[in-house]
From TrEMBL:
CDD domains: cupin_GDO-like_C, cupin_GDO-like_N. Gene3D superfamilies: Jelly Rolls (2.60.120.10). Residues 134-200 form the Cupin type-2 domain. SUPFAM superfamilies: RmlC-like cupins. It holds the Pfam family Cupin_2. This is Cupin domain-containing protein. GO terms for molecular function: oxidoreductase activity, acting on single donors with incorporation of molecular oxygen, incorporation of two atoms of oxygen. Keywords: Dioxygenase, Oxidoreductase.
Length: 395
């Protein structure tokens, strides 16, 4: 019998897709719904039903029996689809926008959002997550504002930009992961001689659907235009295993403004070195991975967004997974083949690929290995106890 891994409060085979059910249970399960289908109405009943349905429509009510399959499918049926955005194309359009579109009040940010083809034209990469490329020219300032949506920045390449969060200047450099939790004033300025582009991630779609979004303009000029080597938040909080006694208790979001690349890189290398020495540490054979965490709780950096970094040795493949929730990957270095459902994407540096909910996915590194930044909405589903993970290959 096949061994399976199924995590979640309601973990059972009823929630697997048809192919997996057939493999585990045989063909009989396919007839269950068919055997429960109610015969159609006779002509006299059909005419009367049409009248009833029209009355219901006039009263803005709908019968459950005409929509049960759409409301309660056997397994999740996401509208979002997997898609591959190429960095070369994204950067080319961002650069062109840089010569045509000013940064300032009104548009606020020169950001290009990634619109999932399955989400009716909305600039959402998933039903819960927003992903965009932001581009800042040399000498430009993006004015301060704040919003209730959680946000982060991930820097693919370059330096010379500082983001100012509640008056704290935070440097942005290659490989850095930076936080702007909800309702914190923030702006950016580029003091370099070259433009800079980075990845923005927010929970805008989730906040929009929940009607929980607030926005407020801040200072036109940045409240602090200094350019320190480290932000004040890093000086206070970014020391492994050490916490300032001046700030006890949990915080809803991480107080660390910048997770510097040198620490991420070192942690990943250490895992692989332990594997080479025969000790545990890697997530899977040849697969080092870390999660960015809130030092006041040990949990995720923000309540709605999880952020991770993955490093795969040459030609290593991850275990195929089904998960409730949405993931987004960006290739930091190297090349990878990303398999999502029936689609295969060949991704290179900077490319972005999304994984919709309950779509089987796995990643295979190229001949020189691959580094991947990843963010997801998994904290939302875990907080609601709706998270679920299944691996066809077992534990």
């Amino acid at each position: 019998m096949k061994t399976i891994e199924l995590r979640g409060k309601r973990g059972n085979v009823d929630n697997l897709d048809a192919e997996v059910k057939t493999e585990l249970l045989g063909e009989d399960h396919k007839a269950v719904r068919e055997s429960c289908v109610v015969p159609g109405p006779i002509p006299e009943e059909a005419e009367e039903l049409e009248q009833i349905y029209q009355e219901m429509e006039n009263l803005n009510i709908k019968p459950l029996w005409t929509q049960i399959d759409g409301l309660m499918p056997s397994t999740p049926e996401p509208k979002a689809v997997s898609h591959h955005w190429k960095w070369e194309e994204l950067y080319r359009l961002a650069k062109k926008s840089g010569t045509l579109v000013p940064v300032g009040r009104g548009g606020e940010r020169r950001a290009i959002g990634l619109a999932n083809p399955g989400l009716d034209g909305n600039t959402y990469i998933s039903p819960t997550l927003w992903c965009a490329i932001q581009y800042l020219q040399p000498g430009e300032n993006a004015p301060e504002h704040r919003h209730s949506q959680n946000a982060f920045r991930f820097v693919l390449e370059g330096e010379g930009v500082w983001t100012v969060v509640n008056g704290d200047p935070v440097p942005m450099r290659r490989g850095d992961f930076l936080l702007t939790a909800g309702w914190n004033f923030h702006g950016h300025h580029n003091i370099a001689t070259e433009p800079m582009a980075w990845l923005d991630g927010l929970d805008i779609p989730f906040a929009h659907q929940m009607d929980s979004g607030f926005f407020e303009f801040g200072s036109e000029e940045l409240t602090d235009q200094s350019t320190p080597e480290k932000s004040r938040s890093e000086q206070l909080w970014a020391h492994p295993g050490l916490r300032p006694l001046a700030f006890p208790g949990p915080m809803s979001s991480s107080p660390i403004g910048r997770y510097a690349w040198e620490h991420t890189d070192s942690a990943l290398n250490a895992q692989l070195e332990l594997e080479d020495a025969g000790y545990p540490g890697v997530y899977e054979p040849g697969h080092a991975a870390i999660r960015f965490s809130n030092p006041t709780t040990g949990g995720d950096v923000m309540s709605t967004i999880r952020a991770e970094f993955h490093r795969l040795r040459a030609n290593v493949s991850t275990k195929p997974l089904y998960e409730v929730g949405n993931r987004v990957f960006q290739v930091f270095e190297g090349q990878a083949t990303v398999q999502v459902g029936e689609q295969t994407f060949k991704a290179t540096k900077g490319d972005i690929v999304n994984v919709p909910s309950w779509q089987q996915w796995h990643i295979e590194a190229g001949n020189e290995g691959v580094d991947l930044f990843c963010f997801s909405d998994h904290p939302i589903f875990e907080a609601l106890h709706l998270n679920r993970t299944f691996s066809p290959k077992g534990i």
